[in-house]
Write a structure and sequence with these properties.
With about 220 residues, the chain is α/β, with parallel strands linked by helices. The chain is flat, with a radius of gyration of 19 Å. A hairpin with a 4-residue loop joins strand 5 and strand 6. The longest helix has about 35 residues, at about 190-224. It has seven helices and six strands. The protein has two domains: about 5-175, Beta Polymerase, domain 2 (2-Layer Sandwich); about 180-224. The two termini are about 25 Å apart. Helix 6 (about 170-185) packs antiparallel against helix 7 (about 190-224).
Length: about 220
């Protein structure tokens, strides 16, 4: 079964306290609600795929599903960095990761299999694909990213909402989480920072090899 860390997470209205002027803007609150609904749609699709695999093949390719909505503070800051004012249209048009889902898989081949099945569904529109598994970032970061549009069925309309979906193995996610924490340490001087960055990249390469080795072990077990 999927271990859901944030299953059907409610809209973080409390985060609006960071920008009190946003709290009175109903269009903003409604937009965040729609993004939250889009994440439910995405999560449900992967739950269904995982359930089917459990019944048909006696295994679960999805280890966990994590979802998040960017905080108002992060949305405002990102718009500023891009040179845009805070408006509902600018949020929708210029930020592709307001809503994010992370699908944690057991093995690298599960990532491509699930991503392909997901993209072939009739109501999923693929906007962009970034494969950082076959082409890792210089830091060693590995993940498979999709930007997609997915319909949200409301009481009086249907709206396509944009969601970023990231796929990682358990090992990739472990590395990325630690890298993120270490990256923002303020007390690391430049020589140490360079050495740590090199060590992190080497760790990423070893983790990638272990992922493939574990995948081969699973295949051998399945063949017996």
């Amino acid at each position: 079964m999927i271990s859901m860390t944030e299953r059907h997470k409610k809209l973080p209205i409390s985060n609006l306290d960071e920008h009190p002027y946003l709290a009175s803007q109903r269009p903003f609150i409604e937009l965040m609600m729609k993004y939250n609904c889009a994440l439910r749609e995405v999560s449900t699709k992967f739950e269904v795929l995982d359930d089917e695999f459990s019944v048909r093949y006696n295994r679960n390719p999805v280890e966990s599903i994590k979802t998040r909505i960017k905080s108002p503070h992060s949305i405002v800051d990102k718009l500023k960095r891009k040179g845009y004012e805070f408006t509902i249209d600018n949020i929708r048009d210029h930020i592709s990761d307001v809503a994010g889902a992370r699908i944690i898989c057991s093995f690298p081949e599960d990532i491509y299999m699930l991503a392909d099945m997901f993209m072939r569904q009739d109501d999923v529109t693929v906007v962009e694909i970034k494969d950082y598994i076959k082409n890792p970032k210089p830091s060693g970061y590995r993940s498979y990213h999709l930007i997609i549009d997915i319909p949200v069925f409301l009481t009086e309309s249907t709206e396509n909402m944009r969601v970023e979906v990231q796929f990682r193995t358990i090992a990739m996610d472990f590395w990325a989480s630690l890298e993120h924490k270490l990256k923002y340490k303020k007390d690391i001087d430049s020589p140490d920072a360079e050495e740590i960055a090199l060590q992190l990249k080497e760790c990423s390469e070893r983790i990638a090899k272990i992922d493939l080795e574990m995948q081969e072990i699973r295949k051998r077990i399945d063949m017996e």
